[in-house]
Design a protein that fits this description.
The chain has 307 residues and is an alpha+beta fold. The protein has ten helices and nine strands.
């Protein structure tokens, strides 16, 4: 155990970093607006959840006192910002979701936060941005070990595109018998992503478990108002952990912050696991068409979600 003097030094170092970070990141600027910081935290969580949480789940994630959270939620209800839906599995609980008015109230806050953080990172070289992100992830992983998920998400980096192409080619050959033309298609998609990458409106997320990549997804610009979700994949050994749903939810979160009004995606009817994820996330099937590709007769499907 560290000596008392060393304990005090470490405590002061954390306090110093906390003062620096809260000042630099602009957290306190919310306190002067329409919403308190606690209210913004609740709105943010509701806006970015893949599925509507209960009040108990919300309180646990945000570590807010149950009575205080209840008062916040009642205030939101009076203002028409949230709606409750009774749980099918437990009639005593209700799931919470933002209404259209709630999303409209949160939108400028999310956009302002996005722009401020983008401006904070912009002067930094790419290597320095990665160092900052990795340091943040380290702090989150160490201090949040009691509620840390069994996987983490990160932005793409050098070498990831090769992994995406190789794993798509290998897994789809193994599980569906698709030939090398599918791998060629994936290679063309990731090459175009890198060549035309617009970080303000496009993203790739890599899911990692135990330091190894186990999943990925891309969100790319299809038009000024519509984004396209592409290349969702999860390794067999990591399925069942919620990685696919989380990747899809990240696409929606980013698309909203980037100002898109809808997300579209193309898949095939045989990809039943992916289709279940899309359906659970609120996407709807809008078109289907038979085609012969990758050595098989398939049915291609277009799914969409309005934001």
């Amino acid at each position: 155990m560290a000596a008392q003097a060393e304990v005090e030094r470490r405590v002061e170092a954390v306090r110093r970093f906390n003062r620096f970070y809260t000042s630099r990141i602009g957290v306190l600027h919310y306190l002067g607006g329409e919403f308190s910081l606690a209210e913004v935290r609740v709105l943010y969580e509701l806006a970015h959840r893949a599925s509507p949480p209960t009040a108990a789940e919300l309180g646990k994630v945000l570590r807010l006192d149950a009575g205080y959270l209840s008062r916040l939620l009642r205030g939101f209800e009076r203002r028409g910002l949230i709606a409750r839906t009774r749980s099918d599995s437990d009639g005593r609980s209700s799931h919470l979701a933002l209404t259209a008015a709630g999303r409209a109230a949160f939108a400028p806050l999310g956009a302002r936060s996005h722009d401020e953080i983008a401006a904070l990172l912009a002067p930094l070289a790419d290597a320095d941005q990665r160092r900052v992100l990795e340091a943040m992830e380290t702090i989150e992983n160490v201090l949040g070990a009691d509620h840390r998920p069994p996987f983490t998400l990160r932005p793409h980096r050098a070498g990831d595109m090769g992994w995406v192409v190789q794993r798509h080619g290998a897994l789809y050959a193994q599980e569906y018998g698709w030939d090398e033309r599918f791998e060629a298609l994936v290679a063309s998609v990731v090459a175009r992503f890198i060549e035309r990458y617009d970080p303000a409106r496009e993203r790739c997320w890599i899911a990692e478990k135990d330091g190894e990549p186990v999943g990925s997804v891309f969100l790319v610009k299809k038009s000024r108002t519509t984004a396209q979700l592409r290349l969702l994949i999860v390794e067999p050994r990591a399925r069942g952990l919620g990685i696919g749903a989380r990747l899809v939810a990240e696409c929606e979160r980013f698309a909203r912050e980037a100002g898109y009004r809808a997300i579209t995606l193309w898949t095939n009817s045989v990809l039943t696991s992916a289709r279940r994820i899309y359906e659970a996330a609120g996407y709807r099937l809008v078109a289907s068409e038979p085609h012969h590709s990758f050595g098989h007769d398939l049915v291609g499907e277009t799914w969409e979600k309005a934001l």
